[in-house]
Amino acid sequence: MDNNDAPAAAIAPELQARRFGRVREAHQSETAEDYVEMIADLIAAQGEARVVDLAARFGVSHATVNKIVARLNREGLVSNRKYRSLFLTEEGAALARRCKERHGIVVAFLKSIGVPDEIAEIDAEGLEHHVSAETLKIFQAHIGKAG
């Protein structure tokens, strides 16, 4: 039995901590990634992104969106003025492009293994934040072979 098949308590603490640490890092960036991607999509589709639009799309309150937008402002991903549309900074736009590309790869991979379109889209929303660059490369190689 190798370390991957071992019961959780039998895995070296350092290895287990590294695994959980990666998941925590993904969770921390997940919201920011979802928001910048949605802001980019809204700007592309309707010329602007507003707090009310984000609240409707994510099914959360305006207060929740305002809190997240304030964080994105501090992180240099979004710029806005009170009661005005939201804009992505260059860094935010670059992150949105990377997220969209990663999402597309995950969706295409899931579809290539037979997952129905709608389920692939739903599942990709969670998977895209947790998949490593190495795994994405393997997904792309599989897509290339399947296509």
Distinctive features:
147 residues, mainly alpha, Arc Repressor Mutant, subunit A, two-stranded antiparallel ribbon, 6 helices, globular
Task: Please describe what this structure looks like.
- By secondary structure, the protein is mostly helical.
- It has one domain: Orthogonal Bundle (Arc Repressor Mutant, subunit A).
- It contains 6 helices and 2 strands; from the N terminus they run H-H-H-E-E-H-H-H.
- It has a two-stranded antiparallel sheet with strand order 1-2.
- Strand 1 and strand 2 form a beta hairpin.
- Helix 1 packs across helix 4, helix 2 crosses helix 3 and helix 4 packs across helix 6.
- The longest helix has 34 residues.
- The relative contact order is 0.10.
- The model has no long low-confidence stretch (mean pLDDT 87).
Assign the CATH superfamily.
Winged helix-like DNA-binding domain superfamily/Winged helix DNA-binding domain
Q: Please report the number of helical segments.
A: 6
Briefly, what CATH class?
Answer: Mainly Alpha
Work out the helicity level: over 70%
Mean pLDDT: 87
Show unreliable segments.
none
Strand content bin: under 5%
Strand order of the largest sheet: 1-2
Nearest-angstrom radius of gyration? 18 Å
Number of domains: 1
| Major β-sheet profile | 2 strands, antiparallel
CATH structural architecture: Orthogonal Bundle
List the helices and strands in order: HHHEEHHH
Please provide the count of β strands: 2
